[in-house]
Amino acid sequence: MIPYGHQTIDAKDIKAVIKILRGDWLTQGPAILRFEKALAEYCGAKYAVVCSSGTAALHLAYLAAGLKAGDEIITTPNTFAATANMVLAVGARPVFSDIRLDTYNIDETKIGNLITNKIKAIVPVHFAGQPCVMEKIKKIADKHKLLVIEDASHALGSRYKNSKIGECQYSDMAIFSFHPVKAITTGEGGAVLTNNKKYYEKLLSLRNHGIHKDAQGKNVMMELGFNYRLTDIQSALGASQLKKLDGFIKKRRQIVKWYERELADVKKIILPAEIADNYSAWHIYVIRTADPKDRDKLVVYLKKKGIGVNWHYPAVYAHPYYQRKGYAGVKLANEEAYHNSCLTLPCYPSLTAKEIKQVADSIKKYLT
Question: Which of 74, 90, 180, 362 has the fewest CB neighbours in a 10 Å radius?
Answer without folding.
Answer: 180
